[in-house]
Amino acid sequence: MPWKDTDVLKERTKFVVASWDESWTMTELCRAFGISRKTGYKLLKRYAEDGFEGLMDRPRAPRTRPNETPARVVERLVAARKAHPNWGPRKLLLWLEKKHPGARWPAASTVGDILKRHDLVKPRKRRRRATPATKPLAHALGPNDVWCADFKGWFRTGDGHRCDPLTVMDGYSRYLLTCRAVPHLGVGPTQRWFERAFREYGLPRSIRTDNGSPFASTGLGGLTRLSVWWIKLGITPERIEPGKPQQNGRHERMHLTLKQETAMPPRRSLLAQQRAFNAFCGEYNDDRPHEAIGGRVPRELYTPSPREYPRRIPEPEYPGHFEVRAVRHDGYLKWKGKYVFLAETLKRQRVGLEQVDERRWRICFYDVELALLDSPTRKVLRYTRRVEERSSAENNDG
After folding, report:
1. What is the mean pLDDT of residues 161-170?
2. Are residues 265 and 387 in the same domain?
3. To which H or E segment does residue 249 belong?
4. The dihedral of CA 353, 354, 356, 357: what is its sign?
């Protein structure tokens, strides 16, 4: 819809002033002024760059013309695009600026026009995307604070073999630590490649995954043999909310690039596919600039963790007021002369129980809280915020 039939500059000024009121959402604000969200964002950008003068009408003629770009520059842009067919104009410019320091390059929009004229751009269908969540990775303040891990969707190589790529990436630097086609999604092969990464790069503080196997289960604490091993190494397993892959958005975006570069089409065999993965890791870490990290490449930001992979995993140490119990081979522990089932994933592990009130005990594995044990009934109450708040309220009432 067009602007209301009043002085256009005044309406634009009112719009900018109204945007300072944080009670408005952009959708509500644009609806109130009868404009599109695209127009609203454009005006706010013009105001941020030039103040209220930026709200005045501007000439519609383009400031620069694509045909004024020197032929040598066009040749370099076309060659760069052919070498990296999945890179957009901004990424190409970041790469070329490093390769040819001091050279002058056109704007990204002009580069896009040049690529279109040379038939180097494929039109993409626009998709509605969920708003990415920033909170899950907000605490990745340095290398190895958070590793992101997942299995990219499986596909078949040219000879019919199934390929399940395991990918592990540092959430801070975007450094791709592992990209490996594993035989299947079992714990054994997955753990072997994680161990190799730990030996090469050290241990992270936490590892973020989705809720699929072998990273998570429906059992107590969502534990699997793999996540139990991580906890014993001092690594905190983190899982995104079900159905919200955007909470691991950096990793999902890397998977899209991985698919475009290595699996469209798939290679003729698993060996050839792994060679493609290896080449992709080298380019992704050392050559491909990332706008989200200021146009740098991941290797410029990543450093290995000072926490080395231990030769021997230490046994858990619980505070003196904890009751320590060993979980049997069948997942049961003995409590007050009776057996209570915890989880098969904890078999032959030592857990600690801390008394919360007269009835309940908090069950911990290392420093991870798993559940509450109701002592009289010997029922294991899965640890949730609601259960913990209720227990805390009962203690306060007492």
Report:
1. 93
2. no
3. helix 249-262
4. positive
pTM of the predicted model as reported, rounded to 2 decimal places: 0.66
| Domain shared by 274 and 206, yes or no | yes
Residues found in the chain: 398
Q: Is there a domain that residue 79 lies in?
A: yes
- CATH number for the domain spanning 162: value is 3.30.420.10
Q: Quick one: 273 exposed, middle or buried, by C-beta within 10 A (0-12, 13-18, 19+)? A: buried
What Cα–Cα distance (Å) separates residue 3 from each residue in 33, 51, 290? 7, 20, 38
For residues 187 and 259, membership in a common domain is answered with yes
- Give Cβ neighbours of residue 376 (< 8 Å, ≥ 6 apart): 359
| 274 lies in the same domain as 347 | no
- The reply to whether 75 falls in a domain is yes
Looking at the structure, tell me whether residues 144 and 292 fall in a common domain.
yes
Residue at 311 is within a domain: no
Quickly state the pLDDT bin for 328 (edges 50, 70, 90). Answer: very high
Which of these, 334, 328, 392, 323, lies nearest to 364 by C-alpha position? 323
Structure tokens at 117: 């004229």
Residue 128's pLDDT is 45
Nearest Cα residue to 303 out of 170, 128, 180, 195: 170
Q: Assess whether 73 and 206 both reside in one domain.
A: no
Task: Please name the helix (run of DSSP H) or strand (run of DSSP E) that holds residue 332, with its range, or none.
Answer: strand 332-335
Q: Are strands 206-209 and 146-151 parallel, antiparallel or unpaired?
A: parallel
- How far is it, in rounded angstroms, from Cα 93 to Cα 105? 7
Residue 81 in any domain: the answer is: yes
Residue range of the domain that includes 388: 323-397
Res. 384: pLDDT tops 90? no
Average pLDDT across the chain, whole number: 83
**Model confidence pLDDT, tens digit, residues 6-17:** 578 888 888 888
Within this chain, do residues 174 and 293 fall inside the same structural domain, yes or no?
yes
Q: What confidence tens digit (pLDDT) does each residue in 128-142 have?
A: 443 333 334 447 789
| Helix or strand run (H / E) with residue 227 | helix 225-232
- Structural domain tally of the chain? 4
Smallest CA-to-CA distance from 306 within 201, 236, 233 is with 201
Residue percentage of the chain with pLDDT more than 90: 41
Q: Give burial (CB, 10 Å; 0-12/13-18/19+) of 337.
A: exposed
Same domain, 37 and 72: no
